[in-house]
Design goal:
- Chain A is α+β, with helices and mostly antiparallel strands.
- Chain A has 8 helices and 17 strands.
- Chain A has helices spanning about 25-30, 45-60, 70-80, 125, 150-165, 210-220, 230-235, 265-280, and strands spanning about 5, 10-15, 20, 30-40, 40-45, 85-95, 110-120, 130-135, 170, 175-180, 185-190, 195, 225, 230, 240-245, 250-255, 260.
- In chain A, strands 8, 9, 10, 11, 12, 13, 14, 15, 16 and 17 form a 10-stranded mixed β-sheet that branches. Chain A has a 6-stranded antiparallel β-sheet with strand order 2-1-7-6-4-5.
- The radius of gyration of chain A is 19 Å and the shape is globular.
- Chains A and B meet through strand 3, helix 1, strand 7 and helix 5 of A and strand 3, helix 1, strand 7 and helix 5 of B.
């Protein structure tokens, strides 16, 4: 099977998927993106992702390059052409091609690129295995609520984690509070048993998986608090985990090398992972087609 | 004349200059750049730009894709093929193409793109015409000393300036101090007559034109201080100007709508513009070929 990408209206072989060097995404990081999970051929939380894309585009004043409905159709087609049952769709919208000047060009047409790839099917047992995080100074800009491709800070901090043998870096703001991971949201169960994740504001991205987990918790009568927490609270937490489109609910078993709980997935984390698993299974009314 | 771009080892027509959608410059803003002026067919301050590129690449741990000398040859060739006597060379180096993951890929080869375009020849009289700046909250990340393509914040602030009818936005940090413009360095002559530009640290880019102006000032016995200054100092300044590769020494005659001096280029600014003009004329021993 040869991979197919969608680039500005055309489905092309992955190797030939190219954009102009003056695409503002390439010269200015002037664009936004989404990563959407495909679970049993269904796009998970498609509406949530499209709503967030709408927010990101709006904040950058980029017009939708097609209707959200048409984008759904293209996503479905990319999934189909790449024969993906379990995987992800990556989609990127930039302000388009224009001679290089910082300010918005008068007549650029937004560019759309979509790729997809398989990942191993979601499995509760595999996903229960914990990972390490380190903490780093949050060096990012002041609008982390927009899901932009201006990701170099995240890249540098993720690389720092990788070199430390950790999976993720939890970023810490000037007040010593954890903001989020470089590509994930951060959660803890405090030593007193409170389920906590940071409130959304311009310091973190409003995660779609984060929202789904909150909703699932609420439905199950599990209380949680949206507030910031310190590195010390994280290190002394009973449980910790992160949420993201590709990691779902993933236990964190060490923070800066210090063991969290007993080093295995915590009780509440396991319950939330089960609830999220059910949430994914319930997508698209369980039908085996893209929503 | 059809424009020619250099893309990863090949000289191609501008319209066909393309990079893969998984070039990390496009997905992560994982790259750096330089803009170099061409004055009478000579690259202005080529060594300064190559030294800064070396700094930027080093901070991102990207290996030089070719020697600085070879890069000089390619720049000269791009200038020649585009028949540029007065203009700019834009060059961009990214970490290269790799499947999308935040951390550095194991085996990516850095990608190099170069374009060039003509601009109207430098002219002291034209360049003496003043422009407006506005002041905005500096929303950027904490490593503005690296010349990266992660420029979305700069784009947004430059657009804000354009919508306010100004040419540039001077960014103001949390302490009320001006850092720099979105693509230029900021200078003032205080009401007491002190020539001031901000010290270099991780809040501003170490401008090549800024350095050339400082050197020219020093040679001419003009004193200056490298320190941060407030918006209020800027608004009550006797003179103000900005420096950049494409604007050289450019008078600022209004800050947030308030006139600076008498609304025309100031005496010291004019002198520095003359000195910078001489600096450019003295490049490459005045020979009419790319350095």
């Amino acid at each position: 099977l040869s991979r197919i990408a969608y680039v500005n209206g055309r489905y092309v072989p992955h190797a030939e998927a190219a954009v102009h060097v003056e695409d503002r995404g390439y010269q200015f990081a002037d664009g936004v993106y989404e990563v959407i999970a495909v679970h049993r051929s269904v796009l998970v939380d498609e509406k949530g992702h499209m709503d967030r894309l709408d927010w990101s585009l709006g904040e950058l004043d980029i017009a939708w390059p097609m209707t959200p409905r048409a984008m759904g159709t293209v996503m479905g087609e990319v999934v189909r052409r790449n024969r993906i049952r379990d995987g992800i769709v990556y989609l990127q919208v930039t302000r388009g091609v224009a001679p290089r000047n910082h300010e918005f060009p008068a007549n650029a047409e937004a560019a759309v690129v979509m790729t997809a790839r398989r990942i191993r099917p979601f499995n509760v047992e595999t996903n229960s295995q914990g990972i390490d995080v380190i903490t780093v100074d949050d060096i990012r800009w002041k609008r982390c609520d927009i899901k932009t491709i201006s990701l170099l800070p995240n890249v540098l901090m993720k690389e720092q984690a990788a070199r430390a043998g950790a999976y993720e870096a939890w970023m810490v703001d000037g007040e010593g509070q954890v903001t989020e991971g470089t590509s994930t949201n951060a959660w803890i169960v405090t030593k007193d048993g409170d389920l906590v994740t940071r409130q959304t504001d311009n310091k973190i991205l409003s995660g779609i998986t984060r929202a789904a987990v909150m909703e699932a918790a609420q439905s199950a009568g599990i209380e949680f608090t949206e507030r910031s927490f310190t590195v010390d609270e994280a290190k002394t937490a009973r449980e910790a985990f992160l949420t993201s489109t590709t990691l779902f609910v993933k236990p964190v078993v060490r923070v800066d090398g210090e063991a969290i709980g007993n080093g295995h997935i915590g009780t509440l984390t396991a319950r939330l992972l089960d609830l999220y698993s059910a949430h994914m299974d319930g997508q698209g009314s369980g039908k085996d087609s893209a929503a």
